[in-house]
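so my prof wants the structure for this chain in the C-alpha cells format not the other one, which i didnt know existed until like an hour ago. anyway here's the sequence
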Amino acid sequence: MPARWSLRPPATIEECHVAFAAAFAKSTYGTGIRRWAAYVDDDMRKAFEGDLGLVLTRDAIVPRYHAVMALKFDQLSERKVPDRRAWEGAGNAIGWGVRLGILHEARSETDEPTWRLVRAEPTWVIDTARGGCCLVQVGGLTPEAKTARARKVATQAKLTRTLARKACLEATPSIASCLAAIMETWPDYDVPEAWTEQGFVPGWTAGVALGACFDAVKEGHIAAELSKVQLHSWRVVLNAEVVRAKAHLRERRRRKMEGLLAGAEESEPSIPAEDLASIDALSR
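here's what i got, hopefully its the right format
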C-alpha cells in the first residue's frame, strides 16, 4: 500500500460520514474542469447501473461509486471502503450529481438522505463537433429548449459542411499537384485500394492506372464531401505517396545503371594470353 495512505490511521465510519457530508455540501472538486459534468454523469449512471427504480442510501451508494472509480483508476484498487478519501470523493460527486440534475435527492422513512437516477440516458455529453472541449446538456430540457437545441445543432452541422466543402475546393490544386508528381515519377502507377477503402476516392478507381482516372481521383474528395479531419488525412497520405514515388524512381534508375554496367563488363573484348605475354615482354 502506498506510504501516503498507510501512514494515516484507519478512519471510523463516523468520521467517514462527516467527510461525506462536508464534501457533499461543498462539492468544490471539479470546478473549472470543462468536461466534469459529463464525467459525473457517466460515473453516476454506472453506479446506478442505469436503473431508474434504484434508490440508494449513503452507505449503499459509496461502495458502488468507489467500484466505478476503481475500474477507472487502478491505484484505487487497494483502498477499501470505509476510507475517508473514498467517502469524500463520493460525497463530492453525488453533490455535483444533484446540482447538475443527474440525481434526485429525497428522504427515507428514517429521515436518511437517498438518491435515485433521474434518467437512464445521458444528461450531459461532450461536444465532439467542437474538438471535445465543450459540454452540451441533452437531458432534462424543456420542449422549448429541445427545439432551440435541435435548431442550433442543425445550424452548426450546416456550417460545418459548408466550411468542409470550402476547404475541399481550396485543396484541389494542391491535390492535383501531388497526383501529377506521382505520375511524373511513376508513369504506370495504379490507384491503391487503401485510398478507396478510406473513402478518399471513388471505389471503382481501385487498381486502375492513375492516368486513366486522374480527374476522378483529383476531385474525389469533393464528391465524397470529406470533413476537414478526413481531408487532412488524405493530404498526408498523398504527400507520403509523392515521397514513395520519388524513392521508386531512384530505385529504378539505380537498377538500370547496374544493368548497363553489367552489360558493359560482359561485352568488353578479352585479350588473348599470347598477346598478354608479348606485351609483358615489351614492357621489360
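also thought this was worth mentioning. The mean pLDDT is 82.
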